[in-house]
Amino acid sequence: DADVTQTPRNRITKTGKRIMLECSQTKGHDRMYWYRQDPGLGLRLIYYSFDVKDINKGEISDGYSVSRQAQAKFSLSLESAIPNQTALYFCATAEGGRGETQYFGPGTRLLVL
Amino acid sequence: EDQVTQSPEALRLQEGESSSLNCSYTVSGLRGLFWYRQDPGKGPEFLFTLYSAGEEKEKERLKATLTKKESFLHITAPKPEDSATYLCAVQGTDTGFQKLVFGTGTRLLVSP
Predict the structure, then answer these.
(1) pLDDT(A47) > 90
(2) CB within 8 Å of chain A, chain B residues 49-108
(3) Are the CB atoms for B64 and B71 separated by under 8 Å?
């Protein structure tokens, strides 16, 4: 089984709809991250969490919210989806320490019409 | 502000034709430099972490090296299964958390 799983893997939604992307991990890591990837722009950080009670905004958090339900679960919500939120979304986990390595999930491809 | 620039954007090689990918970076203090491999439609797969200039790491046909300004990913005698996008990222010391700043990647295609 994969260490980091994301659901759904693909999602099509309409402008104005609220949607949730979910991430679960079995690596036992405390730190979890949400990124989006757009062609030509690379991966950009949306939100990150160092533990269940610690949630922080990344560089592009507007229009998004997150929930850390447990150490192993970190959800990303789009409150009112808009077309420019069409992208690939990745969850990542890390255990911290020197040169913290992040491990990525398989991604969710989101299309907002 | 930490920055990462990767070159070339795309590279086409024949099987067995060795080459190198470049990752130039600016960071106030380097905590770590990371290489990932990403296949189409999949998440980045961790390859290497380099911590200080002069460090080298190898894995099969891949070898990563690091200087104070850039990192190279050397690919020796590549095979078609090495075709992927290779991402470089840095983690600096001047932020309050371990943020990764990514480059836009090099798309590698290895033809049989």
Answers:
(1) yes
(2) 49, 51, 87, 89, 91, 97-100, 102-105
(3) yes
